């Protein structure tokens, strides 16, 4: 199964500001809301689950500063529960999606109990889904929808910290089918695009690697796009021409030495010498990194962009929305934004309003129903961003 709109649903409780949220995703979704409303926390659910599968539970928690830094700070919570539903394995479908749940509970200070459950279809046609359940180091494998079903295999992990999902993904597929590996591969390849502009400005060692999450290899990724996918590169330059006054073309230079590195220059109309990327503005470099990812002809299944509007002119946001919408035919796009200008360009089904309960501090996601939003937009001359900014949809500072 290779489906662009792979991620279907995320539910989370006890995780940072997420007391109890349940979010459904389409091919292109944008989180909208004020600072502190929980947009980043929800996106971090995927990152945290990915890290527990890649490494182990203890290391993933340590990377975030300890269990108290991921646990809901309401004085009562001791348990984190995260569920990801996606259509990624060979026999999954919209009606029988793959579902992975990770639960962590602090039984006493410094002692964290872990439970993992993966449900997936091992074979095609009707029938129960395969179930892998791990409690601590003990793993049971059998059939079952919600309950344990008929358990016919038992395994032991090396320790209570070791990920059952990561371990099962490496086992012989004849034993478990491809479900665990498919789900692990999906999580592992999610692109969390958050360009670090200072790193993106620098020359990059020549390679054919895809754009890194921090865009530190931007020069090399652009050169590869130019060489291997000239149509995509030309489209990227047309986008830049719409956003950057006087822009004419991107040019490349080579720096020799122990390893060949690529430098990027921007040629402008009426200017004798091109501008090195190292001298380009913050917004220009960030826009170039985002467009490089969005014109990638072979992207991962899921691309996440935090603060997509950061440092960009409103004219660039119009272009960026169209490019994200087009790219969502190749990679599912989830982004976060604070910009009414960007939200004005979105369809109701692409908007997820985020808010926070002023009494409890818990995130409310979604804070406004998409169907209600469509009805409201049909009744008014205002655009979605204008309605949101006015406070009519919630998700604004109070």
From TrEMBL:
* Pfam families, per database record: AAA_21
Show the InterPro entries listed in the entry: ATPase_AAA_core (IPR003959), P-loop_NTPase (IPR027417), RecF-like (IPR014555)
- Which residue range or ranges hold the ATPase AAA-type core domain? 28-344
SUPFAM superfamilies found in the cross-reference section = P-loop containing nucleoside triphosphate hydrolases
Q: Which domain of life is it from?
A: Bacteria
PANTHER family attached to this UniProt entry: ATPASE AAA-TYPE CORE DOMAIN-CONTAINING PROTEIN, ATPASE-LIKE PROTEIN
Give the protein's recorded name.
AAA family ATPase
Please spell out the taxonomic lineage of the organism that makes this protein: Bacteria, Bacillati, Actinomycetota, Actinomycetes, Micrococcales
